[in-house]
Design goal:
Blueprint lengths: L14 H18 L5 H21 L2 H54 L2
Helix pairs in contact: 1-2, 2-3
Length: 116
């Protein structure tokens, strides 16, 4: 039995090349996420998941790149939705606090007027 040499590594140009790229990118983003803000983490996570999905579905690097772009966009949208929800929650809490302070000030004013 004779093995024919092709002059290239057996995995280059196949779907496993995309898997290697996704694995390396995932590792780099995971290590870099330690210093990222929440937006960067969500966009990076979306990009990694999108790249993995694109590589698996597309079977090539182009699929991984398209998946990464779509995943990054999705991660950004998730981030903005989470921030909007947090801002609405903060605003509701601040409105309640303002109302409490207004009522407290009104009660104090009435006590001073009536001499209590």
């Amino acid at each position: 039995m004779q093995i024919k040499a092709t002059g290239r590594a057996p995995f280059f140009g196949t779907a496993s090349t995309s898997a290697v790229l996704v694995a390396i990118t995932s590792l780099a983003l995971a290590l870099g996420a330690c210093t990222m803000n929440e937006t960067g983490q969500r966009v990076g996570s979306g990009a990694v998941l999108g790249a993995a999905g694109g590589a698996l579905l597309g079977g090539n690097t182009k699929g991984a790149v398209i998946g990464a772009a779509a995943g990054a966009a999705g991660g950004y949208m998730v981030d903005q939705h989470a921030k909007r929800g947090q801002a609405e929650s903060d605003n509701a809490r601040l409105r309640q606090e303002n109302e409490r302070l207004r009522l407290e000030a009104e009660n104090q004013r009435l006590r001073q007027q009536t001499g209590y």
